[in-house]
Amino acid sequence: MSNTQSIAPVPIDQIVKATSILHQRTVAPKFGHDLLPYFSFKRGYLNLNNGSYGALPKVVTEACNELMAWQEENTDFYYRIGFIPPLIGVREQLAKLVGASDVDELVMVANASTGLGVVLRNFLWESGDVIIRCNTTYATVYKTIQYIHDVTPGVQISEFQLAFPTTYQAILDGWKKHIDNVKQNAPPSKKIVAVIDSIVANPAAAMPWKEMVKICKDAKIWTIVDGAHSVGQEELKLADCGADFFVSNCHKWLNSKRGVAFLWMPKESQKIMLTTIPTSASYVTPGPDRPDTNIVSQFQYNGTIDYTTYLSVHVALQWREWVGGEAAIHAYCNNLAKAGGKLIAETMNTQVMDPDGEFTKAMVNVTLPFPSDFQAQYDASVGTALSNKLLAQNMYAVTYYHNNIWWTRVSAQIWNELDDFKILGNALVTICSEIVTEHKNANVPGNCKAASFESYLQQPIKGAVALDLDNALGAPKPVTTTKVVPVGYHTQLASIRP
Amino acid sequence: MQKNEGKGFIEPVTLDDVLKPNQLFRHHRASKFGHEFLQYYSFKKGFLNLNNGSFGALPKAITEAYNELTAWQEDNTDYYYRIGFIPPLIGVREQLAKLVGASDVDEIVMVASTSTGMGLVLRNFLWKSGDIIIRCNTTYGTVYKTIQYIHDTTPGVEISQFELLFPTTHQAVLESRAGKNTLTNAPQGSKIVAVIGSIVANPGASMPWKEMVKISKDAGVWAIVDGAHSVGQEPLNLSTSGADFFVSSAHKWLNAKRGCAFLWFSKKSRDIMLTTIPTSASYVSPGPERPPTNIISQFQYNGTIDYTPYLSVHFALQWREWIGGEAAIQEYCNKLAREGGRRLAETMSTQVMDPEWRAGAFGDGLFQVNVVLPFSKEFSATYDASVSTALRNKLLSQNMFAVTFYHRQLWWTRVSAQIWNEISDFEALGRAFVSICSDIVAEHENAHIPPESKAESFYSYLEHPFQGAVAYDSKDGVGAHRPVTATAVVPVGYHTHLASIRP
C-alpha cells in the first residue's frame, strides 16, 4: 500500500490550471460590458455595487475550486506543510503591491472588521485612555470601540463629526482642532488611539488620511487606518504612510474570494500585537523569551479555516494583470464614476455630492429624489424599502442617510458603462416616488425612526429575523427554511449593513 | 432571480430550492462501509487516510453542493448578503439544535472553528483579579494559549491546571477532580471557569465530561465544554448536559466544509455573551435597552465572510442520512477503532492505550484509538520536536497519515476509524511505522538536532515552540530560519519545523 510521495511544497501555479485561459488569449476584452461574461452575475443583473462585497471573476472561482480540490486530496499535507509557502508567497505579493518594506509586516485576516477588531483588542486598555472615532466609522469598528468603552471603566470615546459635502481643507482644519483638544484634555501618561478611514463607506469618500495620520503622529497618537476599500481602488505606499496599522479587504476591489483582507503592521507596531484571535497554539507569553516574530507565527495558523480565500489573491493578481493592470483599472473606474455620477444626477434631477472629484475614486454619491420634508429624520423602513425595490428590479446600488439627506452610492467597475448609471437613475426616480406614496399609508413601527442613522445604530431594530408579509408592524419572528415568506415593505433585518 | 422578476418583492429561498437535487442521492449507495466508500471522497489515489480527526474529509457530494452555493453567492451578491443567506442559516441552526438536543434554535450559533468559539466565550467573561481558570495539560493548544493570554494580560487571574495522565480510568479522573483545593481557595466574589474537553485530542480519549460538568456546577464553577470532536462521533443532548457552553466542529466528524463549528449556550449563559468578535454592527451596549437576543443578532452578521461552510451543514446531514444514518456510522467506526487498534498493536508489537475498552471505565476516543509506537524507552525519555516532525514527514512521504504525539514519556499514534477504512489499513499503517521508527532511530544518532527541539514534555515544549516564520532547509538540519517564497520549491528536510504547532 505504501508508495513514495513527494512532500515538497508546491507553488500555486502548479496546482491551478484555470488561469491557463488567461495565458491563451493575448488580448483581454476592453473594459465595459464585454467583460460581463468573465463574471458570474445572473443574466441581466445590473451590478452597481462592487463596493460592498466585491465580485469574483470566473477564472478566480475556478481556481478556488482547484485549490479546494487540492485541499481535499491530502488534507494533512495541506495543513501541515502545503499551504504555508503559497501563503507566504501571497503575503510577499501583497507586501510588494502595497509598498510594505517586508513580508513580515503583512498578515492575512478574514476581513477588515476582523483585522481592525484584532488590533483594537490587542491594546491593553486602561482608565484614562481615549479612542477617537468618527460618526462615519464603519459600524463593526464603531461598535468594537463602543464595546471596549462599555467594558473598560474609564476609557473615553472622542467622536469626530464628519458632515458631507465638505472639503479636504475643512476636514483637516477640523481634525487638527479635534486632536489638539483631545490631547489637551487627556491624562498625560495615557494612550490615545485614532481610527481613521482611508475611504469612508457611507458616503464613499476618499479622505486626506495621510495628512490626518500625520496630525496624529505629531501629537503622539496611535493611528489605525481602516483601509477596507483601498487596495485595488487606489495606489498604496504603506512604508511611507506613517500609520501604525492599516487594514484592507482584498475581496472588495482586488477580485479575491470573500472573505480575505490583510493587516499591515510595521515592526514597531508589532510590539502591541500580543495575540491573534483566537490565540494561536504558538503564542508565547510576553517576556524576554518571546521572539519578535511571534505574532507573525500566530497569524499563520490559529484554528482550522479554509485558506483558499487567502490563496485566491495570487490568482486575483494574475487576473488583474491580464485584464489591464492596476493603473488602467483605477483610471477607467475613476473616470466612469465621475461621468456616471453626473449622469445619474441629471437623470434624477438631483446633485452629485462631490462635483470637483476631490473625494472620488471608483465610487460616487448622488442625492435621491425625495422631498426635503420626507427626509427630515432617518427612517429605517425607507432604507429597507429602497434596498428591496432595487433588488426586485434586478439591480443594486447602496442607499444611505447622511446629513438629513438620502443618497445613493454607486460603484464604477470594469464591467460597467455609462448607460448603467442612466438605467439606475431612472429606476430610482420610480422607486423613490413609490416609496413616498406607500409610506403615507404604511404602519411604520416607531423604532424605525431616529434623528440620524448614527443614533439609529445605537439600538437597531431588534429580533433574529423579521420577514412578515401580513403584519407590517414588524413583530420580529424567527423563520425556518421550510417556510418561504415574501419580504414585504417593512422588512427589518436584524443585522445592519450600511 | 427568476422567482422575483416583476413581483415587486423578494422571496427568501430554501437551500433545497437553490441547489439542484444531488444526483448521487437517487442511487443506491455502496452496500457496505469500507474501501468501497472511497469513491465518494476526493483523496488522492492511494492516500491512506487514517486521520479524519484533525481536519475531517469532505464527501464529493458536499463539494458539489459547495460549488453551487458559491455560484449562488456570485449570482447576486447583494441579495445573498442582505436577504438570501439568512433563512437558510437559521434553518441550519435549527437542524443542529435538533441534532444536539438544544431546547431552542436561539441556543445555537455558528462560528468558524472550535478554537474561534472557545476563544469567543473565554473573551466575553469580564476577568478580574482573583478569578481562576481551570484547564488541563491536555487542553487543546489554541484554548490552552487563550487561557495563557488572559492570565498574562489580566493581573491577578490565576490558572489552575489539572493534570491528566493516560492511561487512566473514568473513575480515577472523577475522583481526583473531586478534591477541590482550587474551589475552596477562591476569593469571595471571584468566578471560576473550567474548560472541560468532551473528547481530548491527544490522546484521542472520551472523557466523563458530563460528570465533570456536574461536579463543577455543584461547586459553582462555570463549565465551558470543548466538544470539538463530539458532533457526529457521539450522540449529544446539550439541554440536559448541565454545561454552560459547548462548542463542536462540524467539519471534523459531521462532514461539513472546513471551517464550520457551532457554539451552544444555555439561556442563562447567554447573559455572559456581550459581543461577537469582531463586534457586530448590531451590538447594543449592555443595559435595560439591550434585548436578550442581541447576541444572536450579532452572530448573524459581523463582517463579510463566506457563509457557505455553515450552509454546507444542511447537505452534510442529508449525506449522512443517505449513507446509513448516525447509528450505523457510529457502530461501524467504533468497532473498527477497537479491532483496528488491536491489529495495529500486534503489527508493531506494542500496546493499545486502553486494551480492554472497559465499559463504564476510562477508554479511548470513540472512533479513535491510541497505540504506542515502537521506540525504546531510552529513545522516548524526553520530548523531541524533531522526532515529531520526522514521523509526520515520513508518513506523508509514504502517502498515508495518522497523528503521532508524545505523552507521558511515550510516543503514540492516534488513529481515526472512518467509514472508508478497513482493518487492512491498520495493518498497513503498523508495517509502515515499524520501518519509519527504525529509520528515525538510526538517523537521529547522526543528525544535528537543535537544542530547542527538546523538552521534558510536549506541554513544556508548547511554552516556547520553535520559532521563526518558516524553516525549510534541505541541507542543514540545524534549522537556520529563513522565509520561503512560493516561487522557490524547497524540499522539506528531516528537521523541518513549522512555526505553528498542531498537536
- Sheet with most strands of chain B: 7 strands, mixed
> Any guess at the CATH architecture of the largest domain in chain B?
3-Layer(aba) Sandwich
The strand line-up of the biggest sheet of chain A is 2-10-9-8-5-3-4
Instruction: Determine the strand fraction of chain A and express it as a percent band.
Output: 5-15%
- What's the overall geometry of chain B? globular
The domain tally of chain B reads 2
Helical residue percent of chain A?
40-55%
What is the strand tally of chain A? 18
Termini separation of chain B: 46 Å
Q: Round the Cα radius of gyration of chain B to an integer and report it.
A: 24 Å
| CATH class placement of the largest domain in chain B | Alpha Beta
Q: Output mean pLDDT of chain A.
A: 89
Major β-sheet strand ordering of chain B? 2-10-9-8-5-3-4
Terminal residue distance of chain A: 56 Å
Which structural class is indicated by helix and strand composition of chain B? alpha/beta
The CATH topology of the largest domain in chain B corresponds to: Aspartate Aminotransferase, domain 2
What count of helical segments of chain B does DSSP give?
18
Oligomer: heterodimer
Q: What is the tally of beta strands of chain B?
A: 18
Could you list the spans of chain B in which at least 5 consecutive residues all have pLDDT below 50? 1-9, 359-363, 467-503
CATH H-level superfamily of the largest domain in chain B:
Type I PLP-dependent aspartate aminotransferase-like (Major domain)
